[in-house]
Design a protein that fits this description.
By secondary structure, the protein is mostly helical. The chain has a domain of about 30 residues. About 45% of the residues lie in helices and about 0% in strands. The protein has two helices and no strands. The radius of gyration is 39 Å and the shape is elongated. It starts with about 35 loop residues before the first helix and ends with a helix.
Length: about 90
Amino acid sequence: MNATTHDTVHNTVTTAPGRHDHPPQPIQPSQPIRRVNLLDRAALHLGVALIKWGRRPHRTDSRASLAHQAEQHFARLDRERAAERMRHLNVPR
């Protein structure tokens, strides 16, 4: 064969609908669709709500803890002010 000869493959395509499952499975009668009843849906929603509620962040700070946090905040502000004052006082003229 020379380089200018082209081999052509002819395929016949059928228009009949076919099955494409491998290996072929037996055809089963159509089964009725099972719907979820109202009670099952309510139980599902309740379960999801309980899971979300159980995973919520737990933060219960006591009054003493909150007071200590406020004291730390104000002490940090005082240190920052003092550092800023020292920076301004020690600037070369």
